[in-house]
Structures are given as C-alpha cells and as structure tokens.
C-alpha cells in the first residue's frame, strides 16, 4: 500500500498490528507500531490495547506495563478493554499483587471485569490467593458482571 501511495490510516495499521500479533509475528508488530509516528500517524486507544495484549501474550508483562503507563502519560483514556487486557496478562504471569492494584483502580474508575478476567478472578478466589480486602473487592466486581 505504501509503495503504491494508497491511503492508509491508523485503523489499517491497527488491523495489521493485531494480525501480526495473532499469527505470532510480534517482532513485526512492534516494528510497525514503532514506525507509526514516522508515518505521521498517532497511535490511538485500540492501538495501545493491541500492543498491550501482544506484550502480555509474549510474556513481556513489564513492557505491557510500561506501555500502559505511556498511554496514561500521553493522556489517553484507559478503557475497560485496556484494564481487562493488562489484568488478564498479569494473572497469567502470576503477578497477582499488580493485578489486584489494577482491579482496584479499574473498579474506582467505574469499569468492571469482562468474562475472561472474571473467570480468572473466580479461580483466584477459589485458590484463596487474595487477601480479605481484595476478596471483597473481587466479589463486588464479579457481582456487577452477573
């Protein structure tokens, strides 16, 4: 598309980055993401969400957290998908303390867990891996989704 000077926008690149992540070509996805500003395109919330999911899928939770902070620092509004994606990744990597911090923030901002995150939280509760205060928060968060 670029060689033929066809019009492209951030939606096109979001689809391309997401596709690369889904087929295991995360290195290519990162290269595309990192080239967006040079192409005159600003990543948007879906772009960040796609990359956070990709980092989590690759087990690079620290990079996903860094991107989350960058996103927040660039004044993008984190949405329920952003929170659920990073919490899901944290729980998969057994980073329960960090996940619990984000669950609290997510709840304070009025967002709730999606079905996948809620299932993981139920597993966490059933394994007694959450302290009392967090158990109450999790139960409250899960009840909102029922």
Notes on the protein architecture:
The protein is mostly helical. It has two domains: 1-78; 98-146, no CATH class. The protein has eight helices and no strands. The protein has helices at residues 10-22, 26-35, 45-57, 61-73, 80-92, 96-108, 115-126, 132-145. Helix 3 runs antiparallel to helix 4 and helix 5 (80-92) packs antiparallel against helix 6. The relative contact order is 0.09. The mean pLDDT is 84.
Structural features:
elongated, 146 residues, 0% strand, 8 helices, 2 domains, mainly alpha
Concise synopsis of the structure shown:
The chain has 146 residues and is mostly helical. The chain is built from eight helices and no strands. The longest helix is centred in the last third of the chain and has 14 residues, at 132-145.
Strand and helix layout:
Blueprint (H helix, E strand, L loop, with lengths): L9 H13 L3 H10 L9 H13 L3 H13 L6 H13 L3 H13 L6 H12 L5 H14 L1
Rg, Cα atoms, Å = 17 Å
Structure annotation, total helices: 8
Oligomer: single chain
Helicity range of the residues? 55-70%
Shape: elongated
Number of domains: 2
Give the helix/strand class.
mainly alpha
Total strand segments: 0
Q: Sheet with the most strands? A: none
Average of per-residue pLDDT values: 84
Series of secondary-structure elements, N-terminal to C-terminal: HHHHHHHH
């Amino acid at each position: 598309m670029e060689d033929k000077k066809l019009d492209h926008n951030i939606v096109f690149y979001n689809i391309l980055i997401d596709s690369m992540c889904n087929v295991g070509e995360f290195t290519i996805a990162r290269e595309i993401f990192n080239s967006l500003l040079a192409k005159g395109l600003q990543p948007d919330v879906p772009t960040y969400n796609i990359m956070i999911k990709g980092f989590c899928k690759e087990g690079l939770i620290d990079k996903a957290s860094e991107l989350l902070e960058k996103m927040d620092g660039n004044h993008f509004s984190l949405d329920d998908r952003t929170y659920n994606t990073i919490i899901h990744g944290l729980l998969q990597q057994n980073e329960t303390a960090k996940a619990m911090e984000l669950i609290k923030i997510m709840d304070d901002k009025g967002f709730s867990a999606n079905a996948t995150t809620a299932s993981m939280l139920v597993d966490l509760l059933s394994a007694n891996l959450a302290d009392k205060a967090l158990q109450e928060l999790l139960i409250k968060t899960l009840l909102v989704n029922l």
